[in-house]
User: Fold Prostaglandin E synthase 2 from Salix udensis.
Amino acid sequence: MRRVNHLATLSRAISGAAAHQRLVQGAALMSTYAASNSQCIASRIAENFRISNPSVARGVTGTVFFSVAASSLDQEVQAKESPPVEKLMPKDVVLYQYEACPFCNKVKAFLDYYNIPYKVVEVNPISKKEIKWSDYKKVPILKVDGEQMVDSSDIVDKLFQRMHPDNSVPDSDEETKWRGWVDNHLVHVLSPNIYRSVSEALESFDYITTHGNFSFTERLVAKYAGATAMYFVSKKLKKRHNITDERAALYGAAETWVDALRGRQYLGGSKPNLADLAVFGVLRPIRYLKSGKDMVEHTHIGEWYSRMENAVGEPCRVEA
Assistant:
């Protein structure tokens, strides 16, 4: 799916049905051209998509490549949410977060999907000096045009209401149910999985300390002491939430979500709704850890996750 990111980014930048139609028609014309110019196109593909093997580049030319590109463009244009009216868009957004926090990533999934630029302040989990100004001592904290917002689900609701003032109820009963499932069930399955073994705990803390706000000394201490501590904490969490087999619980949650889709591209139908964004957001930090790789390999969630990656698009994070 990521192989058409450059084309997908272009399609998002061009608004209107006519522009989209021209892109799809262009892809069809290019497929015809490819049939007689495969060698030239192969070299261009190798250059643009960083494919080192020429035979691989030639293999993705021609009708198949451009048909897939047109199909992916069509899917992405349908899925991506159109930006709200300019005057309704937040102007100054700052997210105080931990990089690996599932709730922080839920907020980021919403911001990315709606193309809302935001600055990030990575909070040191030991000193929390970055949020000393706030009475609220957890993350995420979102400052929107000077207003403090807390609690990931409340943040999403408030932003949605701000951007859709004529829509007094942001979600349906189904959407509400599954958003609650994310907060009350799915997130509790994650920690016992990412800290399931000593090696997985170290892998997780390597990610956390690499992306987090730590000094060199704090990074070393946090990686080894934190991984050891969370390995034992995860066993308590496992017991608290009545989990007997960590991976079975994770796979079960993934399949439960896939079943809820009932064959739809997203829970929201042709485009993601707030429940889709919540599930995607909390899974995003673990996707490329061992637990996340196992989840995709042993369940049917992978196709939906790939669609969500393309629908949400690139991060809208800007430098502070």
